[in-house]
Amino acid sequence: MEKKPIQEVTKLQELTYELTVGHAMSPKVITVSSQDTMAQFREVLRVNRISGTPVVEDGEMVGVVSIEDLIKALATGELNAIVGDKMCQHVETLYADEPLVRAVDKFARFKFGRFPVVDRDGHLVGIITQGNIMHTLLRRLEVDYREEGIHRYRASHIFEDIIADEAALVFGYRIIGRDFDRAGAASGNLKTTLSRLGFNPRIIRRVAIATYEGEINIVVYTNGGEIVAEVRPDRIHIEVLDNGPGIPDVDLAMQPGYSTAPDWVREMGFGAGMGLPNIKACSDQMKLESTVGVGTRLEITIYADETGEHGRREG
């Protein structure tokens, strides 16, 4: 079988899965009232050097007004019009606890300059821009490289110290269905473990994304399951297991964008239909078996031989 090209995953892409919108947002939100005039809104933009704000009334966000709305008001001589008449009432928002990759996707799709950030009760808690995202990613890169050094030194020689013809470490993680607060914790813990064992960063990124997507599928679609990772010097084999409803049509489920997630799951920022395609793109081998009413078994193999000895860091 011809080996398919593997998706290259950068450290920055990996972090967008690990970090949440809340990590990157600014909690200090400048707002205006729906009863303010566009002239007053113009002064808010000038003083704060921003290009738009949420519109808040009685503590609730009722819309968003931007510099584009101001330009239209200037062109028609309507600076005395109230913000409530010129704002956009259908607001695209992000949740503070959803992964940062969802924000990156929304910026790419909508081309907006900013998104209001809300909690699960719909309360405005922050604002996020693409600049916020880049600043957070760069800051996290610096912290990760500094903090992981000592841990990596302690653990990176484990396989060399084991005397055996073959050696493997097995790590198990229990996943609770519908527990969105901890969604992504297992993949993050496995990523940290592989880093401390000294595996190549490119291998770890692929494992982290594939495991994250498998974990989210358990959280979204089932009552729970487990992830078991068998780590060998030359490969990492991951099993994602659940006793959920099963997948009626596996081939259809592998199509990008296909999703059976209910509306309430989509509103939470999950169920976009890219989980299984992302897993396949990051895997050297992938096997998916599912029986309706019984459950699903997903096997992922990623070989650790990209660079260096068994794909592990040198030095």
Key structural traits:
315 residues; alpha+beta; CBS-domain; Heat Shock Protein 90; 2 domains; three-stranded mixed β-sheet; 13 helices; elongated
Overview of this structure, please?
- The protein has 315 residues and is an alpha+beta fold.
- It folds into 2 domains: 18-133, CBS-domain (Roll); 168-311, Histidine kinase-like ATPase, C-terminal domain (Heat Shock Protein 90, 2-Layer Sandwich), CATH 3.30.565.10.
- It has helices spanning 11-18, 21-24, 38-48, 67-75, 83-86, 100-110, 130-155, 158-161, 185-196, 201-221, 250-253, 263-267, 275-282; strands at 52-57, 60-66, 94-95, 114-118, 124-129, 169-176, 224-231, 235-242, 285-291, 295-303.
- The strands form 3 sheets. It has a 5-stranded antiparallel beta sheet with strand order 6-7-8-10-9, covered by helices on one side. It has a 3-stranded mixed beta sheet with strand order 3-4-5. Strands 1-2 form a two-stranded antiparallel ribbon.
- β3, α6 and β4 form a beta-alpha-beta unit.
- The longest helix has 26 residues, at 130-155.
- The two termini are 35 Å apart.
Count of discrete alpha- or pi-helical segments spanning 4 or more residues: 13
Q: Indicate how many domains the architecture comprises.
A: 2
Could you say which overall geometry the principal axes of the C-alpha atoms support? elongated
Helix-strand topology string: HHHEEHHEHEEHHEHHEEHHHEE
In CATH, what is the homologous superfamily of the largest domain?
Answer: Histidine kinase-like ATPase, C-terminal domain
Radius of gyration: 23 Å
Supply the CATH architecture of the largest domain: 2-Layer Sandwich
**Residue-averaged pLDDT:** 85
Binned, the helix content reads 40-55%
Low-confidence stretches: 307-315
What's the CATH C level of the largest domain? Alpha Beta
User: Major sheet: order of its strands?
Assistant: 6-7-8-10-9
Which class of secondary structure composition applies to the elements?
alpha+beta
CATH topology of the largest domain: Heat Shock Protein 90
Number of strands: 10
